Amino acid sequence: MKQQLEAIRNAAEKELASVKLPAELENLRVKYLGKKGELTAILKQMGGLPASERPAIGVLANEARTFIEDHIAQCGAALKEHETESKLSNEKLDVTVPGDRHKIGSRHPLTIVLDQIKDIFIGMGFNIAQGPEVEFVEYNFDALNTPQNHPARDPQDTFYIEDNILLRTQTSPVQIRVMKSQKPPIRIIAPGRVYRSDAIDGTHSPLFHQIEGLVIDKGITMADLKGTLDGFAKSIYGEDAVLRFRPHHFPFTEPSCEMDTRCFVCHGKGCRLCKGEGWIELLGAGMVHPNVLRNCGIDPDEYSGFAFGMGLERLVMRSFGIDDMRLLYENDLRFLSQF
Ligand code: PHE
After folding, report:
1. Among candidates 173, 286, 290, 179, which has minimal Cα distance to 225?
2. Domain assignment of residue 104, yes or no
3. Which residue, judged by its Cα, is nearest atom 5 of ligand 1?
4. How far is the CA of 310 from the centre of ligand 1 (A)?
5. Which of 135, 144, 170, when mutated, tests ligand 1's pocket best, judged by the most ligand atoms within 8 Å of its CB?
6. Inter-CA distances, 105 with 87, 108, 326, 331, Å
7. Which pLDDT tens digit goes with each residue over 51-68?
8. Do 80 and 192 share a domain, yes or no?
9. Looking at the 3D structure of the chain, how many domains does it have?
10. Domain closes at, from 90, 125, 148
């Protein structure tokens, strides 16, 4: 029996040495120390021993149990430590590794300049108005004093949806919508997309943006038009901006004008930007035609007003020195991420 105990002890020691997993360890514990384990089986045979041998064997058996228990405990501790270590080394975090950069988008140049323009006019007491891009022919032309036979209605210049509906060719129909729905005093700007059937090139696109302006009140004169647009030009191009108003014609304003700013690059000498002219055209404007007021139910003897319209793309191209309009629509990140 003494030899049996020693054999068990040695076998247990050997097996424990090669344990790698907690489950294996548990199996060994059951194998040696469990109720049906090998050591227990031997202890059960103790009853058959002569009384004189029992104490000595009992001591040996207890030693063997303690030995195995100790080894199992040690082995368990070692496994745990190993597990913790491998966990730590797997979860290692190197805070010096460069991070993943998240690409943050930026505002489109058209939006940057439009926001600037909105801020300037809101600062002067204007509200922002909007109208649909799919518009009645009546609002786009007739109500704007542009009769049926006017060259601006040439179907080749315009995308018609139906006979009486088209993609608006200008933001001016918003004037009609605002005057029909609001009582003066009116002070609005109306930015938005407009459409013309132009072929695409460096300075033309069938879709572009305009910003319309409209002021209606008692006693509004050309002086208000000039003062307002002068304030606008100085806000956007600096206090030393110089303006020039040239006579022009629009069916819905009388008198009409175009406004130029002295070239802010060459200060009038002539350069590439102003194409040698020294002046840069900014917008069309004029006093709202009495017929247009009447078409909207506003009495031209009581009220007067001015309107203006400018192309956003041109302003943007000038602000950022962009020489091809197509860059604004191509969504090339190499271009867009510069703003
Ligand atoms: N709608 C005109 C255009 O597209 C611009 C304009 C607006 C002119 C308002 C005068 C008054 O050319």
Report:
1. 286
2. no
3. 309
4. 7
5. 170
6. 39, 9, 20, 12
7. 888 888 888 888 888 888
8. no
9. 2
10. 90
* pTM, rounded to two decimals: 0.71
Q: Is the domain of 153 the same as that of 122?
A: yes
The residue contributing the CA closest to ligand 1 atom 2 is 309
Report how far ligand 1's centroid is from the alpha carbon of 312 (Å).
13
Asked if residue 322 and residue 174 are part of one domain, the reply reads: yes
Residue 172 Cα to ligand 1 midpoint, Å, equals 6
Q: What is the DSSP letter of 204?
A: B
Pocket of ligand 1 (CB under 6 A): 170, 172, 212, 250, 253, 284-286, 307-309
Q: Using the mean position of ligand 1's atoms as its centre, give its distance from the Cα of residue 112 in Å.
A: 22
In angstroms, the CA 278 to CA 298 distance is 40
Q: Are residue 148 and residue 61 in the same domain, yes or no?
A: no
Q: What is the DSSP letter of 243?
A: E
Range of the domain at 304: 109-336
The secondary structure element, H or E, covering residue 284 is strand 279-288
Does any domain span residue 95?
no
Residues 126 and 67 in one domain: no
Q: Ligand 1, residues 211, 250, 254: which to mutate, most atoms within 8 A of Cβ?
A: 250
Handedness of CA 80, 86, 91, 95 (dihedral sign): positive
CATH number for the domain harbouring residue 263: 3.30.930.10
Residue 173 lies in a domain: yes
Distances in whole angstroms, Cα of residue 304 to Cα of each of 160, 256, 298: 32, 14, 9
Q: Residue 153: inside a domain, yes or no? A: yes
- Output the tens digit of pLDDT for each of the chain's 339 residues: 778 778 887 888 888 888 888 888 888 888 888 888 877 877 778 778 888 888 888 888 888 888 888 888 888 888 888 888 888 888 888 889 898 888 888 999 999 999 999 999 999 999 999 999 999 999 999 999 999 888 878 877 789 999 999 999 999 999 999 999 999 999 999 999 999 998 888 888 999 999 999 999 999 999 999 999 999 999 998 898 899 999 999 999 999 999 998 887 788 898 887 889 999 888 999 999 999 999 999 999 999 999 999 999 989 988 898 889 999 999 999 999 999
* Residue nearest atom 6 of ligand 1, based on CA coordinates: 309
Cα-to-centroid distance, 308 and ligand 1 (Å): 6
pLDDT tens digit string along 109-143? 999 999 999 999 999 999 999 999 999 999 999 99
